[in-house]
Design a protein that fits this description.
2 domains, about 475 residues, 8-stranded parallel β-barrel, TIM Barrel, alpha/beta
């Protein structure tokens, strides 16, 4: 009885040791493997350059991956910058075709197990019914709580629901070099924030406002996942790190559910690595990480939000990336960018459905799995760290990734082998990883048992000449008792 009472009374203190004493990354997250990220806001109205249009429309010059001039685009299409400012896109952001249930159904068909929309980006516009700023989606633009609608729809489809906060960068986001710009008008300081000196640390006023907005998201929407962008790791935010983590984890206790806090600082300077989930932006790990982690990346190359001339990755590439991440104890959070009217671009939709089709056939090698003794084999190297994805080459059939579940080993080749003949060198006779005799090999992707032999050069599998799906090919390997 004493232990039960102590468990009921436990509260996390704003102290790393207190948090470490109790918190573990929940099994549901480790099992989920694949989530959908959503960058959606007024920056979808110009649909140009990138989601950083709110900032770059005040900078006259070429910038961003698109290498375009946002300032010139704004002046050509909307009028003189400063007279027409970012605030003026908000009434044009109507989301008139937004259908939360249709979105959630699509994400479920894509194979996602959790969904994380952006609650507020650097632009300062709250994509939820904020109690601390008038610049929010319930009072302006769509004039409805799209976050609430999406949360209900996602959860009704059996998925977990999260929220991301990028607001920490808002204080230093908008250029203010021209005194006549609306970014310097005190009337709009609650959107653009007050002018600050270069290099200045966040003021108490900003930290308090950040706290109010962040806890408002937590309290209202009870997110299963709370994701933070790089801004929270900037100098001057250290005073809120342990308190916000304790606040969120205590809310999880109040709600009776296990929650996940995600941050990007790989050096563990903001949050110790064992009390949160590390998130890597547009990058991966080179090897298995003992602690669970996540990659956040996007279907698009240029932007996180919707733009009209996006360059899209292939579903084949993204599936290879997902499989590699899972083999190393990670999850993938894949971003799409809906249009301003609330529709999801056809390219985004097709990529998600392709991934869903593959996962429907091969998901047993992904969901609920854990890493094997090695992540895989093959000639194609993976670059590690934030923003490293552009350095990665396409995979070949000799690139194999391993996962395991319930005593079964899964080997997934990341391309089709010539003639359907696959050789897995790490499972050669006498290999150092597993001395047990192989009992059977089943071709999951093809839905059939296959001929195989274990010899000194490897496990040689004859899958037949028919390629049953695109992207990658899964074999279920059982060992003799």
């Amino acid at each position: 009885m004493g232990d039960e009472s102590a468990a009921e009374e436990f509260r996390y203190e704003a102290d790393w040791d207190s948090i470490r004493s109790r918190y573990e990354v929940p099994e549901w997250f480790r099992d989920a493997k694949f989530g959908i990220f959503l960058h959606w806001g007024p920056y979808a109205v110009p649909a140009f350059g990138s989601e950083k249009y709110p900032k770059r429309m005040y900078i006259d010059g070429i910038s961003g991956k698109s290498q375009v001039n946002h300032y010139a685009h704004a002046e050509e299409n909307y009028g003189k910058v400063g007279e027409f400012g970012y605030k003026d896109f908000i009434p044009m952001f109507k989301a008139e075709k937004f259908d939360a249930e249709e979105w959630a159904h699509l994400f479920r068909k894509a194979g996602a197990r959790y969904v994380v929309p952006v609650a507020e980006h650097h632009d300062g516009f709250a994509m939820y019914a904020s109690k601390h700023t008038r610049w929010n989606v319930a009072e302006m633009g769509p004039k409805k709580d799209t976050m609430r609608l999406l949360a209900e729809a996602v959860r009704s489809e059996g998925m977990k629901f999260g929220a991301s906060s990028h607001y920490a960068l808002n204080r230093a986001y908008y250029p203010k070099k021209n005194p006549d710009w609306d970014t310097n008008d005190p009337e709009y300081a609650d959107l653009y924030w007050n002018p600050i000196e270069k290099g200045a640390l966040p003021s108490k006023e900003f930290l308090d406002h950040w706290w109010d907005r962040t806890t408002d998201i937590i309290d209202q929407y009870e997110p299963d996942v709370l994701w933070f962008d790089f801004g929270l790791d900037k100098p001057g935010f250290d005073s809120v790190h342990a308190p916000i983590l304790a606040y969120y984890y205590n809310k999880g206790l109040d709600w009776g559910k296990e929650v996940v806090f995600q941050d990007k600082n790989m050096k563990n300077e903001s949050f110790p690595e064992d009390v949160i989930v590390l998130d890597i932006e547009r990058g991966r790990m080179a090897d298995i990480r003992e602690l669970p982690w996540q990659t956040d990346t996007a279907v698009g190359v240029k932007s996180w939000g919707y733009i009209e001339d996006e360059e899209y990755k292939t579903s084949d590439y993204l599936l290879d990336e997902l499989i590699d991440i899972v083999s190393k104890n990670g999850c993938m959070l894949l971003n799409i960018g809906p249009k301003a009217d609330g529709t999801i671009p056809q390219e985004d939709r097709e990529i998600m459905l392709d991934m869903g089709d593959w996962l429907a056939l091969n998901g047993e090698a992904i969901y609920g799995t854990r890493p094997w003794k090695i992540f895989g084999e093959g000639p194609t190297k993976v670059s590690a760290g934030h923003h490293s994805e552009s350095q990665n080459a396409d995979n070949v059939a000799a690139d194999v990734r391993f996962t395991q579940k319930n005593g079964v080993l899964y080997a997934t080749s990341l391309a089709w082998a010539e003639g359907g003949s696959f050789t897995i060198e790490s499972l050669a006779k006498g290999n150092p990883h597993d001395s047990r005799k192989i009992d059977s090999v089943f071709f999951v992707s093809g839905g059939k048992p296959v001929e195989w032999k274990q010899c000194k050069k490897g496990l040689v599998i004859e899958a037949g000449e028919h390629m049953p799906c695109e992207a990658a090919y899964v074999f279920r390997i059982k060992f003799a008792d």
